[in-house]
Amino acid sequence: MKKRKIWMLGAVLLIGAAVGTALFMDGGDGSADAYRTATVEKGNIKATVASTGKLAPLNTVEVGSQVSGNIKEIYVDYNSVVKNDQVITLIDPEIYAGQVNQAKAHLEKARVNLLKMRNETAAARADEQSARAQLFAARATFREAKLDYQRKVKLAKRKAIATSQLDSALARKDNAQGTVQMAEARLSTSQTQIEMALTMEKYASAEIAAREADLQLAKIKLNYCTIRSPIDGVVITRNVDVGQTVAATLQSPVLFTIAEDLSRMQVEVDVSEADVGQITRGQGVEFTVDAFQDKVFKAKIHQVRNSATTIQNVVTYKIVADVNNDSLLLRPGMTANVTIVLATVADALKVPNSALRFKPLGKIGETKVKKKLPITERPFYKKTIQALAMDPAQSRELAGIIARGEQQLKAAYSLPEDARDLPLAWRAFFRQVFTDTYNIIREDQREKFKAYWAQFKEAVKRRQRGHGRRATVYVAGDEGPMALPIRVGISNEIETQVVGGELQAGDKVIVGLALASDGSPKQSGNSIMNIFRRAQ
Fold first, then answer.
1. In terms of Cα–Cα distance, which of 46, 211, 16, 207 is closest to 114?
2. For the chain, how far is it from start to end, CA to CA, in angstroms?
3. How far apart are CA 377 and CA 385, in angstroms?
């Protein structure tokens, strides 16, 4: 029993020694993980947007029929090359040819009827002339009878004639007056007959116009029996056979689909609303099709359509890109696996995307700040002296100006991170430095100063255009992962361009935890469990 206690005491002491050794060797942290790292490299990087679309001809025409009937002849088939106005099929024209002949007969009948109406008009005009002559003669007879009666009235008053003669003169006057009234009535009737004849003549003329329109329509329908190609192109689909009946009722039936010039096609692809803002006309497109998986085809964006499509709350926009298909390998309707090239940068500093996604769980070390060079050794100081040809006294004053400006920068960096506006602080720094520098230069240095100031502002603009967005990567340090702020530019599915920060080619960034064979995070070699296992 005593020996057993001694053995257990020895085991406890051994374990304690192992724990102490582990804590000492791990610097007091007994859970140091091992990390997977990747090397930062330089090379070409291409920012892309991937999607799927389909190939389509630039112009597709569905050829239909405007008349109903049986298909009598078909002159083309699938893949037939056709020319504009070429006859491609024929609908049985017999019914429509009969309608043309019928319309011609009706038109001839209307023309004969017009001639008849014109003859009736001429007869009515002749009758009117006769009625006018009769009225003229009747009025002359009436005037003569009236004058004779008036003379005999005077003679009768003097008892120069018998009363019977006066009565006879009165009767002749009244009879002549009645004849005038009859002639006037006949003239009025003949004039009415002329108006009726003219109306019937106009009706006959209108009937001729209607029959001419019927004939023209019948000829058009007969012409529609011959179906012609509206464009130069290739027949993609044929939907009819000889003997088949087509019915053109409310909607014209589609007989053929013709694609115009398959040597030039377009890719239609749907792009999400998150990516469409980066896409503009003229950008390059690369795509593959399942029929030629090893071949990459090129295209150029022709149109970014504003019309949105929403499917299951996902908003997409149609992008159309032109494709040169001189080899005729591509066919309408093929599925295209599209990659839209947003930007390409050569010799860029690249970091893996996994490094940007990595977030350590434990303590994060502080990044070491590079030691600043003395003001007199900095490139900006030296370049300013050289550009303005400063003398030693001016050079010393410039160093003092920069030193005073740095005090303001330190104040900006001392603020909490969420309250800092570092771009504004740096702009204020350079503005003050250049203002104070202008006050110490000579008159002969003013033109050099203006040129240098303009050159400096242009360089700042170029840097700002490539400034990029903020990001953080982590590098391994003695006390654990250390955060390293950087600025990134374009990105693809694998890596991202680094445009600013302390990261350099050859540096190693953490991309994840190193996993053991059982899938658990691998511990560093001096961890307590490893030492305990070795102690066992």
1. 207
2. 23
3. 12
